[in-house]
């Protein structure tokens, strides 16, 4: 493993931040994982202050879980893998943060997910959670596909499924689109009686709120609702295309990560599913490995 080569005296923290939650893991090469913590959304595309708050909440909880004093944060080397920082402006905002760590190394959540999934070796990864995107690292060359953010991208993700469900339900309730069971489900979910009630409930909501509606779409698709079925098949087709594009780079391994990775697989191309291998380590451990390699460099 990559971790074994690090300075045994140094404690690292790996942070994986996405549109729904932020996970942190405190790690030492001598004793392994010391503690973990969970914070809220950490995609700077949807708010820098909220992202920094979530990073610190997960960090503090992980340090406490490790049985360390909170002032130990000044001694740890942090690796951050965050959604959204593939956009240069957001990357710079995080880099400019006056962080409390001894040192901080920043990259995308895709990069750290790939490092973790393949324990530092070459490979490819697709994230299908609140958002969606693909990444491969083969022979020193990295490729990023998607990751354009909600709502202009993230097709096949939880947020995208939820958005499509809301749009379809509103059309159905207005009599301008096909009937769908999603309409009744959303009315019940928001405890409202008409399309305007759904629209008001979702007005200004972030991607994480739309992602909460993804599971009902998958459930109704399984039950045969034609609208839900069309949404899920469209999203799965995109994820399959994403996988096939990444596989053209001949990665030794391909993994899928995120809350929808497992439920989406039954809708993907069989050839894609046959190539998917379990992630060897979670993204936050990929962030630890990234920090270890960065501090050596």
TrEMBL record:
- Pfam families associated with the record: BcrAD_BadFG
Q: Where are the transmembrane segments?
A: none
Report the residue ranges that make up the ATPase BadF/BadG/BcrA/BcrD type domain in this protein.
Answer: 13-290
CDD domains hit by this protein: ASKHA_NBD_GspK-like
Provide the leader sequence positions: none
Official protein name in the record:
BadF/BadG/BcrA/BcrD ATPase family protein
């Amino acid at each position: 493993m990559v971790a074994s080569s690090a300075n045994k005296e140094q404690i690292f923290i790996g942070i994986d931040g996405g549109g729904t939650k932020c996970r942190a893991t405190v790690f030492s090469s001598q004793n392994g994982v010391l503690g973990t913590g969970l914070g809220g959304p950490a995609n700077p595309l949807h708010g820098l202050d909220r992202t920094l708050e979530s990073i610190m909440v997960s960090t503090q909880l992980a340090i406490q879980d490790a049985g360390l004093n909170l002032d130990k944060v000044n001694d740890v080397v942090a690796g951050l893998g965050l959604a959204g920082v593939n956009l240069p402006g957001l990357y710079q905002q995080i880099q400019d943060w006056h962080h409390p760590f001894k040192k901080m190394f920043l990259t995308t959540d895709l990069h750290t997910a790939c490092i973790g999934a393949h324990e530092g070796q070459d490979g490819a990864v697709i994230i299908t959670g609140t958002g969606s995107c693909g990444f491969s690292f083969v022979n020193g060359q990295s490729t990023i596909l998607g990751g354009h953010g909600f709502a202009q991208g993230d097709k096949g993700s939880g947020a995208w499924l939820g958005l499509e469900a809301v749009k379809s339900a509103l059309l159905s309730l207005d009599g301008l689109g096909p009937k769908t069971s999603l309409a009744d489900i959303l009315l019940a979910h928001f405890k409202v009686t008409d399309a305007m009630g759904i629209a008001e409930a979702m007005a200004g909501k972030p991607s994480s709120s739309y992602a909460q509606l993804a599971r009902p779409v998958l459930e109704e698709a399984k039950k045969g609702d034609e609208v839900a079925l069309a949404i899920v098949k469209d999203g799965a087709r995109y994820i399959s295309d994403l996988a096939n594009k990444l596989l053209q780079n001949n990665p030794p391994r391909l993994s899928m990560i995120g809350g929808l990775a497992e439920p989406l697989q039954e809708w993907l191309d069989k050839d894609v599913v046959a190539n998917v291998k379990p992630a060897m380590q979670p993204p936050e451990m990929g962030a630890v490995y990234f920090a270890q390699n960065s501090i050596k460099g």
